[in-house]
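Project outcomes to date are best conveyed with an example. Our students and postdoctoral researchers have been running inverse folding experiments weekly, and each run begins with a structure described purely in tokens. The record below, which covers 290 residues, was selected by the lab manager from last quarter's runs and is presented without edits.
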């Protein structure tokens, strides 16, 4: 039996260029739901079809975030292996502009949702499919942690501080969806677009691969004015990159030069909160590390 609910909350007064457009998403977990949430906030009508057990983000991992992500969407739980529920999905697809998925292509074909059959049945429907890896490794299993690990974004034994791969993929899905929905040369017939988490994460990893954020790189501790320093009770982050910030920082700290050792000695004298307040009054980009 389908379980249906709607969570209100599209922001009143916001620009909504997608108003009047309809989206069906079959995706659970993080990447596509994040993208669907942003599309919903831009005015699209979003119907989220979940499996009978629901979305693991709600049932196992983080119900608070799930609630925020599905706000304003119609959420329905359907077992798509049952004919009557598959027929119900078709009724939504028939009046929609875009389908979002994060399922392997073979699995979609087994559900009669392969692009060839889908396009034949619903010619105006476009489809953005999120996969893990590009061909020929499209069926290689993975999650956020493994994508980050393969691209050098993990520093053991520390776990990543956020879901970089998932959020990078969300940006790619969101961008692909906007292009399909808002292109001034939009085709009257649907278009299939494939996005991979690996390629999206690789773009986010570019600063590391070009050496900017590598250990000792320009943004990896190699610049005294862009670095982390111990305060008396924690740490401060300093990013005085522009000459005016750099000059102001040096003058107000009364330092003969901007060497890391001198900055470290100066920042050790006060608490992180005190340094943050000090910097705000001087328009210097510095923040306490929470």
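After processing, the design step wrote out the following sequence:
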């Amino acid at each position: 039996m389908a379980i249906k609910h709607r969570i209100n909350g599209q922001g009143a007064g916001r620009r909504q260029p997608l108003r009047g457009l309809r989206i069906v998403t079959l995706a659970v977990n993080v990447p596509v739901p994040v993208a669907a949430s942003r599309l919903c906030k831009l005015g699209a009508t979003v119907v989220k079809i979940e499996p009978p057990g629901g979305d693991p983000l709600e049932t196992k991992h983080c119900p608070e975030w799930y609630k925020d992500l599905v706000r304003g969407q119609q959420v329905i739980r359907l077992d798509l292996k049952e004919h009557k529920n598959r027929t119900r999905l078709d009724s939504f697809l028939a009046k929609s502009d875009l389908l979002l998925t994060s399922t392997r292509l073979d699995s979609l074909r087994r559900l009669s949702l392969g692009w060839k059959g889908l396009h034949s049945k619903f010619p105006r429907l476009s489809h953005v499919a999120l996969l893990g890896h590009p061909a020929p490794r499209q069926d290689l299993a993975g999650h956020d942690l493994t994508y980050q690990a393969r691209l050098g974004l993990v520093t053991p034994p520390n776990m990543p501080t956020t879901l970089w791969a998932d959020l990078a993929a969300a940006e790619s899905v969101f961008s692909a969806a906007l292009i399909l929905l808002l292109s001034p040369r939009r085709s009257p017939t649907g278009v299939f677009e494939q996005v991979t988490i690996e390629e999206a994460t690789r773009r986010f990893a570019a600063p590391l691969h070009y050496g900017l954020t590598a250990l000792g790189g320009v943004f990896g501790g190699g610049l005294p004015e862009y670095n982390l320093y111990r305060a008396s009770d924690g740490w401060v982050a300093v990013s005085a990159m522009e000459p005016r910030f750099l000059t102001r920082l040096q003058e107000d700290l009364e330092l003969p030069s901007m060497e890391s050792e001198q900055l470290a000695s100066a920042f050790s004298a006060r608490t992180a909160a005190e340094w943050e307040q000090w910097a705000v009054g001087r328009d210097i980009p510095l923040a306490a590390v929470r």
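The radius of gyration is 24 Å. Residues 9 and 72 are 5 Å apart (CA to CA). The training component of this project remains on track.
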